[in-house]
Amino acid sequence: MLEQLKKYWAKVSEHPFLKHLFIIVCVLLVLGVATHLLLLLGTRHSAHRTVPDLTGIPLEEALGEARRQGLEIIVNDSLYVPAYDGGVVLDQLPEKGVGVKPGRTVYVTINSYRQKMVTVPYVAGRSLRQAKNMLEVAGLGIEQIVYRPDLATNYVLEEYADGKRISEKSRVQLEAGSGVTLYVGESGSVSTLVPKTVGLHLQQAKSRLWELGLNIGKISFDEGINLLNQREARVYLQTPSAGSRARLGAKVDLKLTLDAAKVTAQSAAADKEMIKAAEELRRLDAETADSLARVRLDSLANRPVEAEPVIDDGLFPDEETAEDEFFQ
Fold first, then answer.
1. Fold for domain 191-294?
2. What is the pLDDT of residue 201?
3. pTM
């Protein structure tokens, strides 16, 4: 075999072109093999690691576990969940059990050691919608809306936070996510249409109800929903239903789920209820308008006929006056 290769090389060496071509081919083959080996070494092809469950443990422990698995950890977000200790991993991506290559980065969300404090904005004298928007921008919500008799409906009369009345000079601070109590004006007995909240996340549903002067009632979660996945849950039931009328300040109960199919089905049902409620409202409005028209017609029919007044223009004086003038 070796002798044959020597003879073949001797023949190739006699032709400079073939000799150079052979050398080029050999160099390309060596470079190709070297590149392939380097790629395998860089990507650790065919090697993999299983992402461990890092949730529920302190960040330091999570870092140690990740190093043992040849993984890296980056904290990309933080939340404040009172039920957990500060620094505990709340969520991770990729999730546990996923196969990844060594060196892969796992992004985690940890629990803050304390909630951020924010200054309560002064919202008295503004409309309820403006007040709600200002509070949400500050990271706060509404604990309760209390209506009081006033000429201006849905204008904030007073604002209380942590039992203290807020004034323009107040510098009261609350934990982000806390709520304030608003005393709002109401001219007479005013009602509003209950909006559709089915399909919304909890915070979105609250904002929609507050904007229309309604309070949040009982909040219920389906089984399987915890403090970590609450933000993903959506409303699938509400009481009173969408499209019905409720007095300002009334409470609306909400039920939330992670089941997308349940949300879709209940959303369609809520749309039908709203259409039915709108048709009933139009019917009642028509009946009310008809009743008012009948009362007006009856009032006109029963009104006594008054004699037309006699206008004395001085052209035809009465007889007594004429005689008096004759004998003078």
1. Trypsin Inhibitor V; Chain A (3.30.10)
2. 96
3. 0.64
